[in-house]
Amino acid sequence: MSNETIHNPKEPRHFMRAKIVPRTVRVHRGGKVIAESDNVLRVTELAKDMLDPVLYFPKEDISVPLLPIEGKTSHCPLKGDASYFTVDDNGEAIAWAYEAAFDFAEVINGRIAFYPDHVVVEEVGTSS
């Protein structure tokens, strides 16, 4: 994984940096593990302000079915169009993904991020 900064070509003051977390990261919800990986990206982004870091998990490390939320999308000029996911019948969005991130942000393709206020995220040791 490169430590290069990823820039929006149309707005060079909007950028992010992605680094592999050097530990195993686990996500819980309601006492159930829903993701665990030693290949998590910590993405730090600067737009109009510094945003809180976001952890992106490989899809293959998600251990429960994530249900797409029909009609819920958003757009980021740095990453692309996001789709949202839930795990239960109430339809609460707990995760999102950029399924087709812009070419310059492709490092997050195939990865899922979780809302930290809807799940418990913990770093649980060193990665192997």
UniProtKB/TrEMBL annotation:
Domain of life of the native organism: Bacteria
InterPro entries linked: DUF427, DUF427_sf
Ranges for domain DUF427: 25-117
Family matches, as Pfam families: NTP_transf_9 (PF04248)
PANTHER family the record matches: BLR5716 PROTEIN, DUF427 DOMAIN PROTEIN (AFU_ORTHOLOGUE AFUA_3G02220)
Protein name: DUF427 domain-containing protein
Protein source organism: Microbulbifer okhotskensis
Lineage summary: Bacteria, Pseudomonadati, Pseudomonadota, Gammaproteobacteria, Cellvibrionales
